[in-house]
C-alpha cells in the first residue's frame, strides 16, 4: 500500500464497518465452467462487491465470467473485468497453435511461444509479467492485490499495493500423480517439461508474505511441498452458492443416476476408478448409469475403461451446460460422486451436498474436510479403490432412507460452514491484516481498532523480521 493511495479511496462504509477496499484480483485462467480457479474468481469477486468493496478482476483467456449485475442492485458498479490478453495458444479448436507474425506485441509474447514450442506451459510466467507491468503502471489505484495461484516472477517486488496470494493446492501434487500414471519414459519426460513452471512457483511461494488456502490439507501440502513458512499460510474455506445449489422437489430423480464432475484426462480426478466401479454396480443394479460433467475423452485410460467394460451406453459426458442446467442435473441424480485421488478443497462435493444430493466421496486430500464424517454426511471410501466405490454406490442406490438422511445432513453442513459469503468475509480480514503490516513497514499510522478485527499488533516489528525471512526462504 502506498501513502498516495488513501485520498482517492472510495467513500462509504463496507460491511465490516471500515473503509471499502479497492481490490485487484488476478487470474491467469478464468473459465468458470471448467476448473476451480474460474469458479473461485467468479463467486469471490461477487461476494467481495456485495460487502461494499470495489473489485477489478484482471484476467487472461479464457476470460472470467463475472456476476456484474445484481437484481437487488446491491453491488452495482463495484465489479469489473480488465482483459489482459495472452496469445491464447491453447484455445479450441486449434490448441498449440503457431501465431502469425502480426500477433506478436513484445518479448513476453515471444517467450510464451518459445516455451510452448519446447513443451512447457508458459501462462503462469507470462501472465505474471504482463500483470506486474500493468500494476506498476497503475500504482496507487489499488489497496491490495490478490493473486489467484499465478505464482510468477512478475509479481515479485513492489506492485504499488500489498500482495495476498491464494494457493488452492500445490501443482506439484498434480505433477507427481501424472508422473505416477505415465506409462513410459517419453511420457514422463513430457510431464516433467510441462510442469517445469512448478520450480518457479516454489521459489515465488517462499517469498510471499501472505498466502491464503482453502483447507487444512492444502495448508499442510503448501508447507511441505513448497517450503512456505507455516505462519504465513492461512485457511479461508470456500463454498457453494447455496441459493443456486439448493434442493428442488419439482425436479424428478432419475433412477440409478450417478453424477460426477471430472476432467477425464487428469489422473488426479480418479474417473477411471469410478468407471470400473460402475461396471461392478451394474452387476447388481443394471439401471445404474453415470453422467460426467466434463469433456468426453477420445483416448486414454478412461476411454479404454468405458470400452473394456462395455459401458458406452451407461456413461454420458456433458459439457458447456449452464449453471441452471448443472444444478438440475445434480438434483436429478440419486447419488453424486467425487472419486478424486486428491483435492485441495472439492467444490463439486460442496455443490452436490448443497442440493441435498447424497454423496459418495473418497478421502483424498481435503475432501473429508468438506464432505464430513462417513455415515453422517456422506459415504467415504479410500482413493483409488474401485471396489470400495462400487460397494458404497450400490448401498446408497439401494437405500432411499439413507439417501434422504445423508442428503439433508450434507446440506446443513454446507450452510453452516461453506458459503461464499463466509469466504469473502474471511478474505477481507486477511486483506486488512496485510494492509496494516504494509503501513507499519512504511512507518504510517495503523487504523483505529474495529471490534471483531484484530489490527496487526506485531506489524511494527515487521520490517526487519519480514525482510530477513524473505531472504532466508528465497
UniProtKB/TrEMBL annotation:
<dbReference type="GO" id="GO:0016757">
    <property type="term" value="F:glycosyltransferase activity"/>
</dbReference>
<dbReference type="GO" id="GO:0009103">
    <property type="term" value="P:lipopolysaccharide biosynthetic process"/>
</dbReference>
<feature type="domain" description="Glycosyl transferase family 1">
    <location>
        <begin position="257"/>
        <end position="413"/>
    </location>
</feature>
<dbReference type="InterPro" id="IPR001296">
    <property type="entry name" value="Glyco_trans_1"/>
</dbReference>
<dbReference type="Pfam" id="PF00534">
    <property type="entry name" value="Glycos_transf_1"/>
</dbReference>
<keyword id="KW-0808">Transferase</keyword>
<feature type="region of interest" description="Disordered">
    <location>
        <begin position="455"/>
        <end position="474"/>
    </location>
</feature>
<feature type="domain" description="Glycosyltransferase subfamily 4-like N-terminal">
    <location>
        <begin position="35"/>
        <end position="243"/>
    </location>
</feature>
<dbReference type="Pfam" id="PF13439">
    <property type="entry name" value="Glyco_transf_4"/>
</dbReference>
<protein>
    <submittedName>
        <fullName>Glycosyltransferase family 1 protein</fullName>
    </submittedName>
</protein>
<dbReference type="InterPro" id="IPR028098">
    <property type="entry name" value="Glyco_trans_4-like_N"/>
</dbReference>
<keyword id="KW-0328">Glycosyltransferase</keyword>
